[in-house]
């Protein structure tokens, strides 16, 4: 299995590796890559066939949604509808360990979520540079097992089923992202992670 070692500190020296990863993503390949929170399985989130491979690798229930990761905040409204509440959260906490579930636009395949989709911008320059298109960002583990925060923690079974491994070193937060759902200005906690929900509510109400 081909492995690239790309840290945030040596990113400028890895332009060829980043371009290779981008081409593989566009070709529907599966990449195992570190983020700010966990190691994840990434592929082109606009490619239904590629997404189906992710579900098979993880042995994940097809009814369970998968979030997407983007490279920049300005891209978010290309894929989801953003209200004023969501804008406050995005401005305050992204890039960072937060996933915001928003009503999706038709460009996002229904396999990721029927009506809405979780959106992330990881606080990790490597994965953001690879995001030439929206990426799936689901943890690199068999469903139900512990999510890995370093490459060493990734199950060998997972490693053998991906097309490229990008070793970004240990994840800086080592805790899953906080997930909130924002629909019609209402905010709901789905999963508390690195960012306390109280802190998010405070930012929305400022």
From TrEMBL:
Record's protein name: L-threonylcarbamoyladenylate synthase
Keyword Nucleotide-binding: yes
Subcellular location: Cytoplasm
Listed GO MF terms: ATP binding; double-stranded RNA binding; L-threonylcarbamoyladenylate synthase; tRNA binding
Enzymatic reactions: L-threonine + hydrogencarbonate + ATP = L-threonylcarbamoyladenylate + diphosphate + H2O
GO BP terms in the entry: regulation of translational fidelity; tRNA processing
Domain YrdC-like residues, every copy: 15-195
Family under the similarity heading: Belongs to the SUA5 family.
Organism of derivation: Methanococcus maripaludis
Xref: PROSITE patterns: YRDC (PS51163)
Keyword vocabulary terms for this entry: ATP-binding, Cytoplasm, Nucleotide-binding, Nucleotidyltransferase, Transferase, tRNA processing
One Pfam family per UniProt: Sua5_yciO_yrdC
């Amino acid at each position: 299995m081909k492995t690239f070692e790309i840290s945030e500190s040596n990113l400028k020296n890895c332009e060829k590796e980043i371009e290779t990863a981008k081409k593989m993503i566009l070709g529907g390949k599966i990449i195992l890559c570190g983020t700010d929170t966990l190691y994840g399985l990434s592929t082109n989130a606009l490619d239904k066939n590629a997404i189906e491979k992710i579900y098979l690798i993880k042995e994940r229930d097809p009814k369970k949604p998968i979030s997407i990761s983007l490279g920049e905040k300005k891209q978010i409204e290309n894929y989801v509808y953003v209200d004023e509440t969501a804008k406050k959260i995005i401005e305050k906490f992204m890039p960072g360990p937060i996933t915001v579930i928003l009503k999706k636009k038709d460009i996002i395949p229904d396999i990721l979520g029927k009506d809405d989709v979780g959106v992330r911008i990881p606080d990790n320059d490597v994965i953001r540079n690879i995001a030439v298109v929206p990426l799936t960002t689901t943890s690199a583990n068999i469903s139900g097992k512990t999510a890995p925060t370093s490459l060493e923690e990734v199950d060998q079974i997972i490693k053998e089923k991906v097309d490229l491994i990008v070793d970004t070193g240990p994840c800086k937060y080592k805790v899953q992202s906080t997930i909130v759902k924002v629909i019609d200005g209402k905010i709901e906690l789905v999963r508390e992670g690195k960012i306390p929900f109280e802190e998010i509510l405070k930012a929305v109400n400022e």
